[in-house]
Write a structure and sequence with these properties.
By secondary structure, this protein is mainly alpha-helical. The protein is built from 23 helices and two strands.
Length: about 500
């Protein structure tokens, strides 16, 4: 007979829920959103390291150095330092927000119920989901191009398809991504574990190919594209903010993965080992390859897919494209599909299961790339480029997501003091439906960011949006909660 009241047990600091009818019958619960059991938390530090290597080695990372030099006025050396510092900085919210996922086995949307309310959690969830769907579409575009070039290296007739071939490649890669995620978390774990060494090998191979054709001394001596005599501080800070924004998304939904970690030590070490150095080295590779591209293929090419497509050997093109397809697949499935899948389920867990949520993610990502796909088919003509959207997006969305990160950290560590009512997160009688303190703390930085767009005097608030937003959001949330007459810190139901 099914127990009526849920029970929470602890094993070596990890909490596990034995769901009773109070949770099982709740509209806030389904099997996919349920806390992982302790025996399901099988990811050690090397699995998490492989996860970050797999997510970091991708086409957008390769182009980061070019984005910083072209759009943010940094020199090559300054750009690489900004990337390294940004990923060291972003480790802080990543590891802190991962704590609750590891301790309680809960995904990102369920953790948000503590700081934004049981129903209110859907607002930041959908903001995060929309960003992820956009990135899913962008990465799928790169993966589709790789499939197109792969098939073109094998079948001469395929090349004549042009943009139509790229669209066919997009749809094939789109379907492959959804298939992997539908197979579950273990499928993603093994994809990342197997792909990580392959991706490192690709990076080394590209570097060996490029180094004879570029002088690092000359490359580092290239002057930055900013007004002569301008202070480097403001340009560097804006670029640093944009680079923090690159993983601002994962700093929120890292519980979606840390809920599978064996221990806090595994999640911390895995992220330290896997993220900063991989991002720095692959972005540096992109800078070197772009600089060498003129001698290698005759023109400046800033993305690896197009660069390798210029190689005259069909065999090497086919091999390289197959590896890039794996690289993009490992990034896309983990970074851009898992989160919106959980976020969409959070709206109505009893109605939207994982399969429906994965398909919904796919459809939204497809619609967001509709403009670019129609351009490739030749059905519309437009001057808006994917590269422009990508470079402008980094700074804009980091400003929006920063306050959420600050609120989450403050709520869990300072307000709740790492004690959550695990069963209560899946019911309607413990946490409020809407936590207005969370929305005020989120809304104030966002409004100030929007106002700063029209003010030269306060433009810095937008330029440094992730830092200003996360700090102000956290401070306001802490202040509001501290002023509460009788703070209701949720107690663990152990």
């Amino acid at each position: 007979m099914q127990q009526i009241r849920s029970q929470v047990t602890e094993r070596d600091g990890l909490f596990e829920l034995e769901a009773g009818t109070d949770v099982l019958d709740s509209p806030r619960y389904n099997h996919d959103m349920a806390p992982t059991k302790v025996h399901e938390r099988t990811w050690n530090k090397w699995h998490i390291t492989a996860l970050w290597i797999g997510m970091s080695i991708c086409v957008p990372t390769y182009t980061l150095g070019g984005v910083l030099t072209a759009y943010f006025g940094l020199s090559v050396g300054e750009a690489l330092l900004a990337i390294l510092f940004a990923n060291l900085i972003v480790l802080i919210p990543l590891t802190l927000n991962a704590f609750a996922g590891t301790k309680y086995g809960i995904p990102f949307p369920v953790l948000l119920r503590s700081s934004f309310g049981i129903l209110g959690s859907n607002v930041p969830c959908l903001i995060r989901a929309l960003v992820a769907c956009g990135w899913f579409g962008i990465q799928t575009m790169f993966g589709g191009l790789a499939i197109h070039l792969f098939l073109g290296s094998i079948f001469d007739g395929w090349k004549s398809l042009g943009g139509t071939g790229e669209v066919i490649g997009f749809m094939a890669f789109w379907a492959l991504n959804l298939w992997v995620v539908l197979r579950g978390a273990e499928s993603i774990k093994w994809l990342e574990t197997l792909s990580a060494p392959l991706l490192v090998a690709v990076g080394i191979g590209l570097l060996v190919w490029a180094m004879p054709n570029v002088s690092m001394t000359e490359l580092l001596a290239i002057p930055p594209k900013r007004p002569e005599g301008a202070s480097v501080v403001s340009y560097f800070a804006a670029g640093l903010t944009a680079m923090v924004g690159f993983w601002a998304t994962l700093s929120l939904n890292i519980p979606d993965f840390s809920r599978y970690a064996k221990s806090q030590k595994d999640q911390i070490l895995g992220q330290i080992f896997g993220l900063p150095l991989t991002m720095f080295l692959f972005a540096a590779l992109g800078v070197v390859m772009t600089a060498a591209s003129v001698k290698l293929v005759g023109v400046t090419v800033s993305d690896p897919v197009s660069l390798i497509g210029h190689i005259q050997s069909p065999v090497w093109v086919a091999v390289a494209m197959a590896l890039i397809i794996i690289a993009t697949l490992s990034t896309n499935t983990a970074a851009n599909i898992v989160s919106p899948t959980n976020d969409f389920q959070n709206i109505a867990p009893k109605v939207i299961n994982r399969t429906k949520a994965v398909l919904l993610t796919g459809v939204v990502g497809l619609l967001l790339m509709g403009h670019e796909l129609l351009k490739k088919l030749g059905w519309i003509v437009s001057e808006v480029s994917l590269e422009t959207v990508y470079s402008n997006w980094l700074l804009g969305y980091s400003s929006l997501l920063g306050p959420i990160a600050g609120i989450m950290v403050v709520d869990y560590f300072l307000i709740k003091k790492q004690q959550l009512d695990l069963a209560g997160l899946y019911r309607d009688d413990v946490y409020p439906a809407w936590n207005w303190f969370g929305f005020i703390a989120f809304g104030v930085p966002v409004v100030l960011t929007l106002l700063s767009l029209g003010s030269d005097a306060f433009s810095w608030f937008y330029s440094y949006g992730w830092f200003t937003g996360s700090a102000l959001g956290g401070v306001i949330y802490y202040g509001l909660c501290s002023m509460r007459t009788s703070p209701s810190v949720a107690k663990s139901s152990v």
